[in-house]
Fold these 2 entries.
Entry 1:
Amino acid sequence: MDNLPPSSWLGRRRLLQAAIAAPAAAAVTTAGLVAAPAHAQQASGTSNGPGRFDPASPRFAIAVLPDTQYLFDEDSSDPEPLRETFRYLGRERGAGNVAFMTHLGDVTEHGSEHEIKLAGQAFRGIDGKVPYSVLAGNHDVSGTDQRGDTAYLRAFGPHRFAGTPTFGGASPDGYNSYHVIEAAGRRWLVLALDWRLSAAGLRWAQGVVDANRTLPVILTTHELAYADDAGQAYLSSYGQSLWDGFIRRNDQIFLTLNGHYWPPGRAVMRNDAGNDVHVHITNYQDRYYGGAAMIRLYTFDLARKVIDVETFSPWLLARDPAKRSPLEAETLELTGPADRFSIDIDFDRRFHGFAPVVPPAPRPPGAVMPKGTVAYWRFDEAGIQGAGSDGGVVAEGAVARDLSGHGNDLTVQRLHSSSAEVLTWSSEHHAGQPAHASLRFDGGKSPDRGAVLRTSANAPLNGMKFESGYTIEAFVRFPEPFEGDHAWMGILSWEGRSGDAGKSSGWSPDEPTCSLNLSPERFLQYVVYPTDRDADPTSWSHALPVGRWMHVAVVNDGRQTVIYIDGSRIARNPAQRSKGISTLGKPFAIGGTQFAERYGQGFYGHVGDVRIVSRALRPREFMVPYA
């Protein structure tokens, strides 16, 4: 496009004259969509091309390719930059987990048979390697999407994508299409809309959205918004009509991508549902070598709840750095705030209105007690006396049953004349926790206060040595804000003193023989005195977050102890041999750690299900299975 303000460019552009002919032949469904082949209706995100794409990974990328028109400009055409971009995407399909590529229109400068043919040949470099969509820009076509036959339609019409697993269908005229990709364990709809959408095209687009009501939508089109030199985006007059008539009414559309204008820019707009819509312009045709087939990579990271965006030219990056010209060197990557940035987005919350996350149902105790389970406690109605409303006090002497049936019941005891509110019941829980309940401990110091749940004096667990291995699991959550001094608070322990077990190498003879604690820096500390030596091998985690549920697993295989946080092995697991636990027949407790027959401050936070198994479990066997 010519870089003119939106108020003036419409009347000054040279429109291409396209031949009017019958639309490309296509089968039309009763919904008015060009039907995809039966095998394509699966909308798989996989490809037979090189590089293995992982649809289950929480991190994936969508490549965005804007106006390539100056690379296909009659006798000055040079397809090589685009070919290198396609080679790059094919090579990086697996390493970058590239799910899809979308072109934003103005494939060519004049839309001539020669230019379109050359572009169509260049796109063979990505055919079958990475799924992609293409839409027409004003330099490829003229008029609305009812324009009939064109060189563009013959090269990039629905027939080109008929064998692509992601292809969902096209409008009867062939100029609008959609793809469904599978990535990060869910399905996403990419809607590719023509340069000038007719009323019929708009009805078709609405029909696609209506037929896929649970899918988040990325809308791609050639023109929607322009930007000022500071990178702030504004809707064009046509963009405003598309916003008012379509985008703002459909909460599923969370991201729009368009080219046509430069400079690049972005804005956040609010739709009728009150949710954010990210409006982005990307176009580099004004840059050296017509943009050198630059791409933007939108990397979706559902674990971090962010989209990371970067812009670069694979063609220029592939060149020998020693031989790059100054213009090539300064153009190969763009790092300004309009070209390299991140978007914070809570995907579950943003998509809740049309695709609410359905939490898993509670699992019965029998479903989460594998072979070797010696104790299992949970704090719902099945597990503890008095489970009820949020904030309800858990009474002194209340019993949490050992659901394994081995007699390791826990009894509630308040510490240091603490108030009743120091232990309450809560419906809060980890998303993957078997029971949908927890206990809220309000322990602390100055003065010391808290509550514990202890086994009875004759519980079998008190004296178990676990010399063949063990796994201890717990769900925990630290409050946000994390107020007060809670350094070295205990989460769970066996009460026997290390000195009484004949251990002299540790920090103190009053230290319990096994305990899970939190340091002043919120590092998790697991210290154990093994049965076969005078030692206290200690594992340390990273600084743990607040306001977030975590699954903690302590796994010992009879030789070494390893700690996992949310299924990930921590770094500071000592290699020192650690066989068994030097238990002394003293009670096991949740909610505090006893030193020299006295509990200090109690735990501060939530504790969910706790399970102990007399063997080393693999992560896929944890209460929350990890692949």
Entry 2:
Amino acid sequence: MASGAWATGGCAEDASDDGRSGPLRRLADDHAMPARRVRVLRPGPPVRAFSEASCHRHTGDAHRSVAADDVTAMTVNSPAQSALNRRRFLGGIGAVAGLAAVSQVPLEGDALAAPRLRGGEYPFKLGIASGDPTPDGVVLWTRLVPELFSPDGGMPSRRVPVDWQVALDERMRRVVKHGTVSALPELAHSVHVEVEGLEPGREYYYRFRYRGDVSEVGRTRTAPREHGPLGSLSFAFASCQDWTHGFYSAYRSMAEEDLDLVVHLGDYVYEYGVPADGGMRKTATPDVLREGPKDLDRWRMQYALYKSDPHLQRTHARFPWLVTWDDHEVENDYVGDYDGTISANRAAAYKAWYEHQPVGRRSLPRKDGSLRLYRRSAWGGLAQLDVLDTRQYRTAPPCGWGEAPACEAGNDPTKGSMLGATQEKWLLDGLRDSKARWNVIATSVMMARLDHDGPTGDIIWHDAWDGFPASRKAITDTFVSAKVRNPVMVAGDWHSTFVNDIKSDFDRPESRVVATEFVGTSISTNGDDEVYGPYYGPMMKWNPHIKFFDGDRRGYVTCRLNSREWRTDLRMVPTVSRADAAATTFASFKIEDRRPGAVRV
């Protein structure tokens, strides 16, 4: 009997399988699918037991639809928020780091004594998540938000206690770690628990409690020990999930995969307003979402909308995630170092990103509004995973914006940088020191060259690594000089799928292949439209290092590797107009140890 166990009295969570459960569910929709039971929290040992009467059920009543007249009086910008200038806003962010450290200090008592919530709404409407696994720990995340589109989330303006548990079994009977931490109003009552002291390379289960409300049970796992057997790794990567462009049917399939890890490469949310009918989803949304985010309250609502999707929630609950960002978490095609300052809106976007992702204290917003995102993870001796931040330190592209000709300034490292000097040195030093069998670099944007006009010109797209060829060459030169073993890039951003050979010098097509790159399509962005196939397809003849291209299917990518071989499956859904569309494998590729370049199988 574990002293940290809770008896749940048989509390249950319900969810709809049509992608519309929660506050956005349209009860009058003729196409709505019936709700189904997804998990029952079974009774545990009678320690700190609470009765079924005090246990809030995750039902349709708890997730009632938000009618338009409920939000008519709500505004995105309150007068007090509008009056804040940038200095005061950043000053408030500067105080967050100290508060967050306090939130990790264990509390006396437990969450049963927490204050009641107005309206009795269920507080775990955004689900739960885990991330950044190490051999002895993992970050656990949730956010208390009983009212998704209220500026305060429906929570009191004070810190409140939240209980957490980690167990060896899904029924949460063999609890090995537990505690109570503070959820702070300054961090939107989000919780980031950095659990330590776990065993390497094993599966764990976890959950949270606030008063009588219990979250669903999540599954996570720790990384293998550094010097153990090489073993294997299975992970999926994804990006670009505009909520208004379609359902997250790809996540529905991803959640059924047998994975160790999910890597998200950015565009988790988009900065645009949300139409009344929800766009492709044809799901009614409240008026407060019409305009895009411009302040912290509204950014929090944008994340609440996206994270209300049940298939995204389930995939978060099934696997630990490694996350980075791209541009739409702030603004399309922005570069971080362009004006040398961080605007109040950008700082708010960064802070909201932290509040909604399973990352630890090292990524807390700093006094100037920035945050540390790039980081390195190891999967035993098998894989080193370097997660890059390609936005925050990027300079203006030296040769122009968007589609434009290449120029000599792009080859001068003093004229522009994709990663910034500090991050670039960190990456190159880590590659030189790596002893891993596979070296995975997670980057939001594509590294391979994409020649737009062949021998008649030199047009390229400058928002990708093509706009920073000096930064790219520093990496490819290190692959060669340091004899980096099996470097593989995984990228997103393009709403298209590419499989690329990375050349030591893209200006010399005959140069050697030094790495492999897989670029995944979007989860939903661009919907079912044919956009990039017709546009980029004719360019493929000028890019022989691109071994595969598909411009118009949605989905994700799975990668399974062991000591001898890497296999990639391109998983595509036929449509994002339905939440239940199933993914199938469109094409598969393999890489053999010490032989860069993917081969179709």
